[in-house]
Amino acid sequence: xxxxxxxxxxxxxxTLRDSAALYGLDDWGGGYFGVSERxxxxxxxxxxxxxxxxxxxxxxxxxARDLYPPVVLRFDDILAHRMGHLRRAFDHAIAEAEYGxxxxxxxxxxxxxxxxxxxxxxxxxxxxGFGIEAGSKPELLAGLALTExxxxxLFVCNGFKDQEFIxxxxxxxxxxxxxxxxxxxxxxxxxxxRSAARHDVTPRFGVRVKLASGGVGRWAGxxxxxxxxxxxxxxxxxxxxxxxxxxxxxxxxxxxxxIGSQIYDIRTLKYAVSELAHVYVELVKLGAPMGVLDLGGxxxxxxxxxxxxxxxxxxxxxxxxxxxVVYRVKAICDDAGVAHPDIVTESGRxxxxxxxxxxxxxxxxxxxxxxxxxxxxxRALAQQxxxxxPQPLLDLVDAWERLENGADPAEVxxxxxxxxxxxxxxxxxxxxxxxxxxxxxxxYWAVGARxxxxxxxxxxxxxxxxxxxxxxxxxxxxxxxxSLIDAWGIDQIFPIMPIHxxxxxxxxxxxxxxxxxxxxxxVDRFTVxxxxxxxxxxxxxxxxxxxxxxxxxxxxYVAVFLTGAYQETxxxxxxxxxxxxxxxxxxxxxxxxxxxxxxxxxxxxxxxxYVQFSPDDMRRALRKEIEAAVAxxxxxxxxxxxxRRFLDDGLDGYTYLE
Length: 658
What we know:
With 658 residues, this protein is an alpha/beta fold. The protein is built from 23 helices and 25 strands.
């Protein structure tokens, strides 16, 4: 749905639709987000604007409940809609192609292991015929608990396994579970054979083949001949011979592969599916019963909204993905006279990404002056006494005067840039004092800011680095390493925008700096108006009302979208910033919203325990030191009480700024 296009009272030439276009809301939102007439971002939990949830209103409601950002908003209805969309896409493709097999999606627990999300996927997946996938012992146990009472739910077990893992799977199958271990290494066949003999069962299992078709993008190296997963074709042939000799070939029911993650080009998928299907029919010809073809993961998400074959996007739709998979498997099986297998995909990213939104508050900003500090410049010029005024300072004063008199900003900037370089050199050699150095910087920044204003969005190549050098820094209450690890680790672009004030034209551009003590703790890769950019348009912070403290700003909230996959799981404890609050928000029948589940973030006490500190021991030691300070009169009793109160409240408080 397009946002309202009427002009806004703050800026008659700026519309809500302009804001939506600037931040690409319609391109990456997948139909799940829009702009309200209030200038706020709203979620469409059912994929249509019939039901809306105002994100700004949710944040205000959380703060009224003493739950402050950063917070992850989880929309279970969006997750359910994504699952249904995938189901419908394959059902349509199967019906249209008259395909003889079924389709199942198994959710890889690794994508987001939070219990509430896994339970939601299980509950919705039960009605859609979906299953789950595990890749480690902890995930195996979690999966067994999740599927208790749902014996027919497909449970695929990937990853490297030991005898205990294999035996647990064999026993679960004997209990009636629809569980399939996937052979990743040849020795796992021996473990399966031993466990099957020990428990007198004919096991059912799959094997993963190492395809020649490689992946693309960041995870290209995880597939192909050098990939870590699966057996080569020659190893699979040897495995078939071994299974036949041990009378276990009847247990080989599934062929699996790993194409990669975030496959952005549909052609890569087509090549891999074709190769996999040919291997499948050859295994059937060799006497394996088979029946299931597991394509693994790879279904991507359009993070930047460009719908293109680049790392942060995809050049296909769910419908195209499903149709290509079904058509290619059917065609190859029909040519070989082999029955159509059931198709399985392990789509996790595509299911959960849209359902997670990280919201945080901007605490302040650092901006470069647009006009030099006149008092500072005059002080620098006046203090020279009989010494000669440094030439770079005079050159910069002249550059600013020429700019004020209408000179070409680009020409003036080149002069200013050269003068600043000379000023730094003189200062480093001891020939310029610190006041003159400060004055030269002030003038240089002002010249650059004037040039940026003149250029607008059309920045020539000669000045391509200017927005990076002179853009604002918005200090934000979150940890990049905890909540947005892929933005740091693999330069993943996420959709980022303010969730309110969209009726106003953004007048600033900058990067987002987190509150960790790490220079890498910043986001400086964005998509703006459909194009990659190094700065993000944002609004100037406004001074607080009602006589608040000087320097206190009105709350300004920014959201990072499509964070449901991997970010909560991969985050670390850099600077001991723990998990954020996470709330499950649902729409009510009366048009409002409510919290279905609240998962409070880590306290300081909890994260200290993660790194083997004892909060109770710390508390006792510090209290003892406080009392000693009172006895020695280094602290007053009032100060000691305040210190103890900070200590106790701090240990039980949120790890983020409150």
